[in-house]
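Q: What structure does this chain adopt?
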Amino acid sequence: MKAAASVGVVALLAAFVAHAQSRGELLYSTHCIGCHTTKMHWRDGRAATDWPGVVAQVRKWQSANSLSWNEQDVVAVARYLNESFYHFEPSAPRPAASTGTARP
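A:
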C-alpha cells in the first residue's frame, strides 16, 4: 500500500514539474504580457530577426522599463520567447553595452 502511495506522489510531482513555468516565462508573464500579445512576435517587420536580436530586444525593453534584470534573466526570457515563437538557432548572446571606458 505504501509503495502505491509513493508512486502516486512521484507521478503527481512529475506532472507538476512538467507544467511549471520556466523563469523566463514567469518574468515575461509578469512584466511584458501587458503590452505584448502573441501577435507582437508574429507581426511583419519584427525587430528580432535572429537569436542575438531576441536577446538584444529583451535587454533593451527590460532596461527601458527599469526592471533591473540580470543577464541570466534576460537570457531566460529570450530563451522562452525563442522556444515559444521565433525558433532561431541559439548562439552566444550579444554582450551588454559597456558604459565604462576601455582599459588597455
